[in-house]
Design goal:
Strand order of the largest sheet: 4-3-2-1-5
Mean pLDDT: 78
Distance between the termini: 116 Å
Structural class: alpha+beta
Number of helices: 11
Length: 377
């Protein structure tokens, strides 16, 4: 006679259904209390550590542990039923079903723990990789396969006919899901190549740009600076020319063009521009290492001397406030120094007599043409 029957011998004369419910209720309550006490004790221990890894693991295991306790209590209650009330064949089938109910939460618990541990390991590595939705789904599938095989083995289900059917129908399925499979494998390539990570700011050759929000089994989503989402099929992203502004180095050089008149002293302009940059050293995102420089490039323009101020910013998004602040400071300094920003000027040579003919056609009185035979405006 089972342990449960020994503990509750007073219920021997009860109806089997009531006895089953009693054993199930008491067993479930006892195991649930044990799980609750154990998780609470582990939670208190986790609070004493400096890392959040143990807290995340405990939180991920709470639900599977509760369901496992309920399944174990159900198995104990089944074992307590006498043979005259439940045939051995039916008891075996029910036991296999309960065993499957135990395997499912255990598989979920292991997959959750694997994802959390992988996410923690990547956060501490220098690769800059992140666990995407596609990566998490792949881990769940990898753990679900052995769990499913164990359940099928318990149910005495042979996989040979199923594998044969899959082999025959695999060609038809692959043709029907050609685009879906292309996106799926492209997503694996994007996740494993290590050139694009979650959180990177990228720009495609087609013009779309933004932060990588996630890589799923079919699409990659980008969040633009306007906080909109751009949805890109993985196959398109894998074939595109991509500029990554975050990896491997988030810092970037920021060129700011400056134009001054030909009468300006280039060395004087360089000196006052660098003074304004140094005065703005506390600006968020502006880096002083490497030091800022002013280059006489692109040089001689049609109506101005063109220089380029080169500074470095901490990441792609900081370039916009840094440009705004530096341009305001440089413009104010130019006005104090009397340096004017020139307007576009064009010199047009006209054939002899063309200006006179144009004035006559417009009803203007005859005027002597400029010396030299030609006309210049």
């Amino acid at each position: 006679m089972s342990l449960a029957l020994n503990l509750f011998d007073f219920s021997a004369g009860w109806h089997p259904a009531w006895r089953f419910a009693l054993v199930l209720g008491i067993g479930a309550a006892a195991l649930a209390l044990t799980v609750w006490i154990g998780l609470r004790a582990l939670h208190k221990l986790a609070q004493r550590t400096s890392t959040t890894l143990d807290d995340e693991l405990i939180g991920a295991l709470r639900w599977p542990a509760q369901w496992t306790a309920l399944a174990v209590a159900l198995m104990v209650a089944l074992k307590d039923i006498e043979e005259r009330h439940l045939s051995r064949t039916l008891e075996y089938r029910l036991t296999v079903l309960v065993a499957a109910l135990i395997i499912v939460p255990l598989t979920i618990a292991v997959s959750r723990a694997s994802i959390i541990l992988l996410r923690y390991a990547l956060s501490r590595s220098a690769t800059g990789w992140h666990v995407t939705t596609l990566t998490a789904a792949s881990i769940r599938i990898l753990w679900a396969i052995p769990g499913l095989l164990v359940i099928l083995n318990l149910l005495d289900i042979s996989l040979a006919p199923a594998l044969t059917a899959l082999g025959v129908g695999g060609i038809a399925v692959s043709l029907a899901l050609k685009d879906t499979l292309a996106n799926l494998f492209s997503g694996f390539y994007i996740s494993m190549a290590g050139n694009i990570h979650k959180g990177d700011y990228i720009k495609l050759d087609s013009g779309q740009e933004g932060f990588v929000e996630d890589v799923t089994w079919r699409i990659t989503t980008l969040r633009t600076l306007q906080n909109n989402l751009v949805v890109i099929p993985n196959s398109k992203l894998s074939e595109a020319l991509v500029t990554n502004y975050t990896y491997p180095e988030p810092r970037m050089a920021l060129p700011i063009p400056i134009s001054v008149p030909y009468s300006a002293d280039v060395d004087h302009v360089e000196r006052i521009v660098l003074e304004e940059v140094e005065a703005a050293a506390g600006l968020e995102g502006l880096l002083m290492d490497p030091p800022p420089v002013v280059r006489f490039n692109p040089g001689f323009g049609d109506w101005a001397l063109n220089l380029t101020l080169i500074v470095h910013v901490s990441d792609f998004t900081k370039q916009f406030p840094v440009q705004d602040a530096l341009r305001r400071r440089i413009l104010a300094r130019f006005r104090r120094e009397g340096i004017q920003i020139p307007f576009p000027v064009r010199t047009v040579d006209l054939p002899p007599g063309s200006l006179k003919r144009a004035l006559e056609a417009g009803g203007v009185a005859d005027r002597p043409e400029p010396a030299g035979g030609g006309s210049r405006v």
